Amino acid sequence: MTRWLLAVGVLIPLYGAQATQDPEAVYNRVCVACHAGQLPSAPKRGDEAAWAPTLAQGMGTLMQHVTEGFKAMPTRGLCMDCSTEDYQAVIHLMVSKPGR
Q1: DSSP label of 58
Q2: What is the pLDDT of residue 25?
């Protein structure tokens, strides 16, 4: 029991220490290559009509598509250092009109 508590005590701070990245920076680093119009099947940033069918499926489905890959979308969207929170922030950034 003591070893288990020690292991948890060591791992929790490491897990919680991962800072969420700036969504704009993540978008510009990994998402823009497809979501700025170069890949016609990838909905463009801020195009609410193009995102509507995907959004209707819910955030759980969007997260599954990002992490597992979907159609032309590669696994993890090629962001190997993104956390769940990073993905959710970038999704919110991409589906909203700029300035919202």
Answers
A1: -
A2: 96
